[in-house]
Structure formats: C-alpha cells, structure tokens
Q: What sequence folds into this?
C-alpha cells in the first residue's frame, strides 16, 4: 500500500569482507570484532525461502551493528537488532 | 582428530532424520574412526548402529542423551536439585527438565545406562489413557548409576549447563555442573561445547569454557548431529513440527534454525571449533577410552541355558509322552529314530534348556487357559495354543506339547528348524486364542519376573498414507485435500513419482503444482521407512536369566501390564536374545468361541481333535469355493483356485493353503499344479512329469512343483548335492535381506553340483529359476499343516454349525477377509437367520438363540446381533442392561428400561436408532421413530446443569402419529448404527430404480463366456497383490451374491479414486468362465447412480434426492488388502 513502510526493514549496506567472508569494513568503517555469527535457514517450504548469514559486529567507532548476507545475490543488509 | 560423540538417529523419534545405517555409512565415508550414537532417552537404534558400524570399519560408541528432571515435586535443596532420598522409585518428572549426554565406557556403564533409561521411562504411561509422556530420570538416579559412564554436560539448548545459561540462570547451571562433577569425578565429567550457529553461540561457549576452567575439567566439542547429510535438514525441521503437532511456521522456536546439525567431516568440525582446539583434541582422547562393544559384551543368557540337568530332563519328558503317542504306531521305529536324532542335535547345540523353557511356558498357558475358559467351558477339551511355523516339524516339539501335528505321520522335515550347523536360536512360534494370550503375556512377566521378561519392540515406519497426512499437516495444506490424497494413495507406492500420480489423480494437475504439495512430495520420498514411534511387537517376548534391564532398557507399553525392551526383533536377534512368539490368532479364538457357543446353545461338548477329517459335505463346500469365513481359503485368490484344484483330503488342503503365496506364484508352481491335478482326475494313470528323476521323491506330493519352503532346500540337496547347511544358506540368501553376490555364488555351486550328478545344464537352470522365483516367500510344510488343519476345522464348523460359526466370526471381528455385513449376507443366502439387536433378547456379544417360531432354519437357530455391535454405546451400560434383564425379566417400557438398567440417554438414543428398542412396550408398533420419541420424552440420563436427571419408571404418553422410517430409512440407520444390515440388502431396495440392463450376480451362471455385461453392487473387498502385475481384484456384492471383478492396470489408472474408495460401483466388462470360476474383466467403471428413488410407503423428497449419497456415506468401506499373501 503506498505511503506505508515496514518498521525495522533491513537496509542495504556496503560491506567489504576478508578472505574467509567475514566483514572487515562496514560503510568504510573498520570492524573491530565479530561478537556473534549465526545462520538462519527458514521458510524453505515457501516460494520465498530465507537464508541469511548474520554477524553481530563492534565497529572501530564504538558502534554495535548487526548485518547479514543473503544467500541469493550475496547482498549485505543491516538490521536493527 | 575430531570424533563425534553426540549424534541422533531417527530413533530419537521425530527428531533425527537419518537411520542408524545411514549415519554409520556417512561416518565411514567422512573418515571417522569412531562415532557415538546418543539418541534421546533410548538405545533403540544402538544395536543396529553397532552392527552397521562394524561392517564399515567404524568403532561404534554406545550412549544416550538422557532427560533429567531438575526440580521434581517436593522439597528442593539449596543446590536447586531434588533432595536425596528420592529413591529409584521416586516420583515422576514434574518440573523443569534438561539433557545430559551419557557415553558407555565399560560393561558396568552399559548396565547402568540401561537401568537409568528404564527408570526414565518407568512413569511415562502412568496416566489413565496410558498415552506416552516425556521420560525423565532424577539426578539422584543418575548419581546411583554413574559407574562406567562418561557424562557430558549436554546440548546447547537444553543441556544442564548450557540450557541454564540460555535461561539466564548461570548460577543454577554451575551448581548442577558441580554436582555432576562430584558424581562422575574429573575423569568422567566434561563440559560440552556445541556450535549450532545460533545467535548466542560465542557468549555461551565463552561461559562454558570459563565454567570448565573453574571446575578444572576439560571441555569437549560435539556436533549434536541430527542427519547424515545436509539435504535432510528440511525433513528434520518437518519431523520436529510433526512431533509437536504444529505447522512448520508454528514450530519455529523449536526447530534447529539451520542445516548445520548435519553430519560433516572431522576437518570441518575442527574448523568450526577453531577457538577451542583442546575441546576437539578431547574428543579423540575420550573416544579412545570408550571401548565398550555392544556386539560382543552384552552378557545375555536365557533361562535354562546353564542348567546341567536340562539334557536328561528333556529326554525324560519326551520319553514319557513318546510311549502314549506312538504305542502301536506302524511308524514307531521311525519315530524313535527321529527322536534320538533330534535329542542328539539339541544336546550338541546346548539347547535342551531352550526347549524346557518353552515347555514351561506352555504349562503356564495351560493354567491360564483353564482360568480364562472357566471350569464348565466346552473349550476345556482344546489345547491352550498351537505351534505354527517350522517348529511343527519337530518331534521334540510334538512330544513337549509345543505342536499339535505329528511330524512323523505328516512326513514333516525338521532340517530347517533344527540342524547341526544352526548358529542362531531356533524360532518357536505359538498361536493362542486372543483372550488366552491377553492373560498369558502379563502372567509370563509374573512367572519369570517383570525385570527378566518383556515384549519385543516394533517400530511403525512411515508409509505413503501416513507420510501424506503428517507432512500435509505440518505444511499447512487444507485438511480436505490431505484427506482426499491420503485416501487415494496406495500401499505399494514407494517413490515420490508414484505419490505424485495419486496427487494429480485426486486434486488435478493444477493444484498438484502448488509449491507446498511439491515440497510434500520431496519430503515424503525421504520420510518413507523412518520409524515414527515405538510400539510393541504382536507377541514376541524375550526372557533372560539376569535382569533384562542390565542388557536392554525396558519401557512400559501402551497396554496395561505390558512392557517392551527397546529393541525390535532384528536387534533382539542380533543380541542373541531368546525370543518366543506368542501370537494371537483370530481364527483360533473364533473356533474356541464357536465350540463354546455350540455347548451353550445345543448342550453339545465338541472335541475338535476328534471330528472326522474326511467329511464329504465339508470337502464339497471347499471344492465349490463356498468358503466365506473359512481360515486361509476364503480369499478371492483361493476361491478362484479351489474349484480348479478340487481338494479331496487334508493333504490336498495343506498344499492348497501353501499354494497362494508369493513363492509358489513367482516360482511358477500354480498352473502346472492345477493342470496336473486335472490330468490326474481325468486319468488316474497319468504320469506326473518331474524336472529330473532325482527330484521325484522331493516333489511328489506337490506334483513336481515347488510349493513348500523346505522343498527349496531339499531340491538343492537332491539335485546339486548341497549339504543341509549349504541349502539353508541358499534359502537365507534368497530371503528378505537378499544379497545378489551370495545368490550368484550359490548359483555357481548349484550348477556345478548338478553337473556332478549328471543333470544337464538346461534342467539345472530350469530348476534354479524355480528356486530363485520362489525366493523363500512361502510356508514351510509344517506351518501349512498347522494352518491346513485349522482351515478344515473352520470349514467343518461352517457346514455343521453354521449359526454358531457365523456368530463367533462376528464376535471376533476384526478378522479375515470380509466385513461383518458381507458375512451376514452370505450366511443369509445359505438360509441362516440373523436377527437385529433387541434390548429384550440380545446379549452384549452376538449369540445364538432358539427362534420364537420354528421355521425352515438350519439348526433351528437364529444368530442374534449383540448390543455391543451398536456403535457408540457404552459397554458397561450394555452389560448392566443385560444383567438387569436376566435378573428382573424383560423390559416392558422404555422408561422402565432406563430406570432399571441405568442406561443413559446417549446410549438409549443409539439403541433406538439401531432398532434395538423396537417393540418395547411389547406389542407396540415396531418403529424406531416412536422409540426415539419415547427415549426423548423419558429424558433418562440427560445431564441438566451439574447433575444427571434421574430416570423414573413412568412411561411417557403415547407418541404422536409419526411417519414410519420405511425400509430405506431403516437401512441407512442400520449401517449408521451397526455397520451392517440384517434386513433387506441395499441392492434389493435400489434395484427398482436402477437401469434394467444391469445383470445380477445370479444371472452370471447362465450367461455365455465372453459376453459383455454390466453389473452393480457394493464393494466388499479390494486387493492389489504385489505378484499380480498391477491388476486389482474387487468383490462386488449384490442381493443375490458376489462377483469377482478383475481390474486391469489401464482401467485402474483411469478410475483410481473409484477403485480405491467407492463403496458402490457399476462395472462394465467381459464375462470369463473357466473350470467353474466366473470373473468379470472390467473395461469401464462408474459410480452407481440411480434413475429413480427407492420405493417407500410415503416417499420423502429429501431422501429421494440423497438416497445414494446417504448410503455411500454409511456403508462399510470394504476391506482393502495391499500386501496380503506375504
């Protein structure tokens, strides 16, 4: 419906990864540490299966951030946790 | 190197998605040197896993993931655990539960694991419905059984430590861990780390590692494997949802969330725990210590196996009975020689105790039988049970009472049952009437001790129908669609493609494309064959000298007083358990009931062992295939064959019983046997052709064909010079778990042996093909002899005591090939009178009564349908109704009946609908509507507010003028309330409105072979045997009799739902008549439609419109048999 938008919808984000596929920078900001890393594979029985690789990060500027990569398209999103 | 110490198979019911065999093969393929199976609260799959691993060169570690109860009801100590003093028999789980991983280090550890698992299950069926609840042991019980076990702190979600962290109770988690450390010591307690790729993995593992440091014990990494391959992850999700009776969406919090709990390589697991290399190294160190081998160290012995006097005692028992059984016999010497030979083999194999144990069991059965039957019963002359299977061929079994067939007289060959090369315990199967068996099983537990005897488990596995239903529900598919597809899916479908065909047939190609139905097909393919839950084997029992709970956990069964071990018959056989099969045989119960009913109704005490075995009238009926209700020869296939084989005596019948089996059918025995019998009838001098003269003595009684299982052995011995153990090896190679390599090896030796005997290669190959076709799917002659005798006895009773026989079949349902409705119609066509349920005449069960007025009725007796046949009535109420009537005389009014008997309104209404209250008060117009009106006005037993209205013996005023129910209304009410009608056949009522071109079953006799006809009727049986190349057989019943329909595959494909489910059909086809057997080869099928309404006194528009639909909804579905005959 026009005019409405989902709250907390994931937003595209620019992520550079190290050779193992772990985020090294997010929007140019260095990743200080990966606090958690988890996988969600769900809704495989529907036409919109969900496959996301999540990272909970602490950035160099002190911000905490949760990002995920989709299996399809290998795109990165940030999500409000 | 990483070793897996925590894995679940499909025996973690509805959690693991792979079989133990798949896990073992997967572990071998990934290069694991050792692998632990730790199913939830059980070792159900451990024996299978241990043997499979052995085959793959992987060392199996035995263990289980035990559910522990942390806060049972009652005082709780400051450690948060239940207080000591809760003994092994303490209260059932009542509070929070958590998981522990237990691994077996030594024999003592295995014993403790079995005892703990037994305790965990002890209270799982304490509720009134005996439905299974969550198992759970207390920590005190774990403490008492810790020796020899290694304890890991449990899984990431529910482990005693990790689970506490997840709940935010780190202090509680640490307290439990410290307690376990005290119990198991630093050597045998480890903190378990897992990496399931969940959100809090790192935090949890950091805390667990710190905890381990504080406790000064190592961490150990585990994978918590739930499938052998990633591709099974969706199925694992679906299983969790099925287990919770939820859809996949609803079960989200309980599912694993991703596919990382699938088996992966040791290298990948090492990488997963890169931050904890010591925890990985600890897996290998622990595995090195866990060297208990389930395949070698079980330590089981059966009672009597160590009895030094057993040999003498068995010989004494046999000799004692020998004199009585064989005195004056022409074959005395032969019998003596056989007895000595068998006793020598038994002594050599050390099996005397085994036979004595069976004899003891039979003595126990004799006591039980006397109790169950009562002192006055006419059944007392009958033995308590009978042997079946190959044990009937043993003279020792005959003399110890385990079999009722004289093997010398019947020329039975004991080689298969007992030979010197036997390495496993022989099988003795005993058949009992159902009522005796019900009492005997708990009595066995009493006799040998509840801790030393138990039933064998069985694991119902997923088949297509259940797969469609369970998976459909979890996928959230519409229930009506699931139902339609499940009803269309056949027994034989095994692959997704076959189920898809059914899906398209029932929902149409468009709907079948829906993504969720596609997913269902994929999952169904994988779920088939996986165990769904544990259950009990029909009658297999294991008995042990030492407590069984030291060798296998024992759990309560769904039936009160029964318990099962956690292993099925294959695992029990692998464990070398002595297994006794106490089987309930419906026909044996029916025959006993019949003898009892004859005694009651006619005052005759019938001794079935003394009836003439050459009764001409009985054999005439068998030859004419008038065998509805007769044991083993009532099936459609048998009825087709009887007029062609023309059995003349018991020996013929014994062959007949064995003939319609997959072995003889696929081995090509049927047609030659029928042809040769025909030749012999026409020309007694006819020379039976044998494949080779060497086979004449072996195949003489079956006219040169292989019919009995032992003829395979004997043919191989006679033609190719096989030793008895070589021949037995051949039979095993061809049995269910067949091995192509082994068969090839036997083939080579068979040809070589035959050539050495001067048999041409062509003949040898021909015989080999017969043997191979037979494949072991046949009866041994001994089994056939036992069954053939019961066939004859039941046929004899059917002829000479027709009403009692029908009555006993009705009371023993479900059994046999035909639904009660068909049994009644067939008996009525033979002139047996059957009367409907009547509150003033019926008992709870059906019984035989003297008619009110004498008529032309065989035996002068009437079968009265019991009140228990009325669906939905309470058994106790019916018992009270009958008891009160016998005490105080007939009921003269409905209010009086309600008041005197205390029967409540719901049962009264059902009785009224079934017509059981017609004619009360005596002399009233017999109509169900009036009775129903009176029941309603009386208001007996109606619940008002919180109390039940008292039934006062005040008769209500006369009912208003109500339209009588009419024939059609009665018919519908009959089917709805009892599943049968004893009045007019539905086809008789429908006939006037049907197309006059339709023929009746009685017309077939005068129609020409090859004529094209159309016929209509009710489907009473449908069968699609595996051996019939896709042909479906159906029995169609009309008001005059039954007719066989043969539905070729092409017609079946066109009309699949009709063939599978329609109760009323119209069939078009070609009449085929061969040697007195008539069949209709169907070319087209249609649902039965009427052109006019059934005749009624006052036609009712609604009834007219819905007549057929109404009947369709209430008629019995007809028995459907998919795999019969195996």
A:
């Amino acid at each position: 419906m026009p005019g409405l938008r989902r709250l907390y919808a994931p937003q595209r984000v620019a992520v550079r990864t190290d050779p193992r596929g772990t985020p090294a920078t997010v929007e140019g900001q260095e990743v200080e540490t990966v606090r958690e890393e988890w996988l969600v594979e769900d809704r495989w029985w529907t036409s919109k299966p969900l496959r996301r690789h999540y990272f909970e990060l602490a950035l160099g500027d002190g911000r905490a951030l949760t990002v995920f990569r989709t299996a399809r398209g290998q795109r990165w999103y940030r999500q409000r946790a | 190197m990483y070793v897996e110490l925590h894995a679940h198979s499909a025996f973690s019911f509805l959690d693991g998605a792979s079989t133990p065999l798949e896990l073992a093969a997967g572990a071998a393929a990934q290069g694991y040197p050792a692998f632990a199976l730790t199913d939830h609260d059980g070792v159900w799959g451990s024996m299978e896993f241990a043997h499979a691993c052995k085959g793959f060169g992987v060392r199996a570690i035995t263990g289980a993931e035990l559910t522990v109860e942390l806060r049972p009801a009652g005082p709780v100590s400051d450690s948060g655990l239940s207080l000591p003093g809760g003994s092994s028999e303490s209260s059932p789980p009542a509070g929070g539960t958590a998981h522990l991983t237990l691994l077996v280090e030594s024999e003592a550890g295995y014993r403790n694991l079995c005892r703990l698992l037994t305790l965990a299950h002890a209270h799982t069926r304490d509720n009134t419905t005996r439905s299974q609840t969550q198992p759970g042991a207390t920590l005190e019980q774990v403490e008492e059984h810790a020796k020899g076990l290694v304890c890991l702190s449990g899984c990431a979600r529910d482990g005693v430590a990790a689970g506490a962290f997840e709940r935010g109770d780190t202090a509680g988690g640490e307290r439990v861990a410290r307690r376990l450390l005290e119990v198991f010591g630093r050597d045998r307690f480890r903190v378990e780390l897992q990496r399931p790729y969940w959100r809090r993995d790192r935090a949890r593992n950091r805390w667990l590692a710190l905890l381990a440091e504080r406790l000064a014990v190592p961490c150990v990494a585990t994978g918590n494997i739930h499938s052998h391959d990633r591709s099974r992850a969706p199925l694992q999700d679906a299983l969790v949802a099925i287990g919770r009776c939820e859809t996949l969406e609803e079960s989200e919090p309980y599912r694993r969330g991703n596919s990382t709990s699938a088996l992966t390589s040791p290298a990948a697991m090492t990488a997963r725990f890169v931050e904890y290399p010591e925890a990985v190294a600890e897996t290998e160190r622990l595995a090195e210590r866990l060297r208990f081998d389930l395949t070698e160290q079980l330590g089981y012995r059966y009672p009597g196996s160590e009895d030094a006097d057993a040999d003498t005692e068995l010989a004494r028992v046999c000799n004692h009975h020998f004199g009585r059984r064989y005195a004056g016999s022409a074959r005395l010497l032969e019998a003596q020689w056989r007895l000595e030979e068998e006793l020598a083999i038994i002594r050599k194999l050390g099996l005397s105790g085994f036979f004595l144990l069976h004899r003891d069991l039979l003595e126990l059965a004799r006591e039980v039988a006397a109790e169950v039957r009562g002192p006055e019963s006419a059944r007392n002359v009958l033995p308590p049970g009978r042997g079946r299977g190959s044990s009937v061929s043993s003279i020792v079994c005959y003399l110890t009472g385990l079999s009722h067939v004289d093997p010398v007289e019947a020329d039975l060959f004991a080689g298969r049952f007992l030979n010197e090369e036997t390495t496993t315990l022989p099988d003795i199967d005993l058949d009992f009437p159902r009522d005796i068996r019900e009492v005997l099983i708990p009595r066995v537990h009493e006799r040998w001790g509840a801790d030393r005897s138990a039933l064998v488990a069985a694991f119902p596995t997923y088949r297509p129908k259940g797969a469609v239903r369970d998976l459909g529900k979890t996928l959230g598919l519409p229930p009506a669609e699931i139902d339609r597809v499940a009803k269309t899916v056949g027994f034989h479908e095994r692959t997704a493609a076959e189920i898809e065909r059914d899906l398209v047939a029932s929902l149409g190609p468009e709907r079948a494309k829906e993504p969720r139905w596609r997913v269902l097909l994929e999952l169904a393919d994988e779920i088939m064959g996986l165990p769904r839950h544990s259950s009990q084997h029909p009658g297999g029992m294991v008995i042990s000298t030492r407590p069984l709970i030291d060798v296998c956990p024992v759990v309560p069964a769904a039936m009160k007083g029964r318990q099962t071990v956690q292993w099925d018959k294959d695992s029990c056989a692998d464990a070398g358990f002595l297994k006794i099969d106490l089987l309930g045989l419906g026909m044996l119960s029916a025959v006993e009931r019949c003898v009892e009913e004859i005694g009651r109704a006619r005052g005759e005490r019938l001794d079935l062992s003394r009836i003439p075995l050459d009764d001409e009238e009985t054999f005439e009926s068998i030859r004419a295939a008038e065998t509805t209700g007769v044991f083993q020869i009532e099936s459609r296939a048998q009825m087709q064959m009887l007029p062609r084989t023309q059995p003349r005596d018991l020996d013929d019948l014994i062959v007949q019983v064995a003939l319609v089996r997959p072995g003889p059918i696929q081995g090509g025995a049927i047609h030659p046997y029928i042809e040769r019998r025909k030749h012999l009838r026409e020309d007694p001098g006819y020379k039976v052709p044998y494949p080779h003269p060497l086979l004449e003595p072996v195949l003489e009684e079956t006219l040169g064909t292989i019919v009995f299982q032992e003829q395979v052995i004997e043919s191989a011995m006679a033609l190719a010079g096989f030793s008895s153990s070589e021949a037995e090896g051949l039979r095993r190679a061809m049995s269910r778990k067949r091995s192509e390599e082994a068969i090839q090896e036997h083939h080579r030796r068979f040809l070589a042996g035959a050539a050495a005997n001067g048999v041409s290669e062509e003949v040898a190959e021909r015989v080999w093909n017969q043997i191979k076709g037979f494949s072991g799917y046949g009866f041994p002659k001994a089994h056939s002899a036992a069954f053939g005798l019961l066939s004859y006895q039941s046929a004899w009773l059917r002829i000479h005591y027709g009403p009692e026989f029908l009555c006993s079949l009705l009371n023993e349902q479900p059994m046999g090939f035909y639904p009660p409705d068909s049994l009644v119609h067939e008996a009525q066509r033979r002139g047996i009178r059957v009367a409907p349920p009547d509150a003033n005449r019926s008992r709870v069960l059906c019984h035989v009564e003297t008619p009110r007025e004498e008529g032309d009725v065989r035996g002068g007796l009437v079968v009265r349908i019991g009140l228990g046949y009325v669906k939905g009535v309470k058994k106790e109420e019916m018992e009270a109704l009958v008891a009160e009537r016998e005490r105080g005389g007939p009921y003269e009014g409905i209010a009086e009946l309600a008041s005197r008997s205390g029967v409540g309104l719901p049962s009264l209404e059902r009785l009224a609908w079934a017509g059981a209250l017609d004619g009360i008060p005596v002399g009233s117009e017999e109509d169900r509507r009036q009775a129903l009106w009176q029941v309603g006005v009386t208001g007996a037993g109606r619940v008002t507010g919180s109390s039940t209205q008292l039934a006062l013996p005040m008769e209500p005023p006369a009912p208003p003028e109500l339209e009588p129910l009419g024939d059609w209304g009665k018919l519908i009410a009959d089917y709805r309330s009892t599943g049968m009608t004893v009045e007019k056949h539905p086809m008789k009522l429908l006939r006037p409105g049907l197309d006059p071109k339709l023929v009746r079953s009685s017309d077939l006799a005068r129609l020409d072979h090859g004529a094209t006809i159309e016929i209509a009727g009710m489907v009473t049986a449908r069968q699609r045997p595996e051996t019939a190349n896709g042909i479906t057989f159906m029995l169609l019943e009309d008001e005059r009799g039954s007719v066989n329909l043969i539905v070729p595959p092409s017609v079946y494909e066109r009309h699949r739902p009709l063939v599978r489910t329609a109760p009323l059909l119209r069939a078009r086809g070609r009449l085929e008549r061969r040697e007195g057997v008539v069949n209709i080869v169907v070319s087209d099928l249609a649902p039965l439609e009427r052109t006019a309404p059934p005749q009624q006194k006052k036609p009712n528009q609604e009834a007219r419109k819905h007549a057929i639909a109404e009947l369709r909804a209430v008629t019995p579905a007809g028995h459907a048999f998919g795999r019969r005959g195996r």
About this structure: Chain B is about 45% helix and 10% strand.
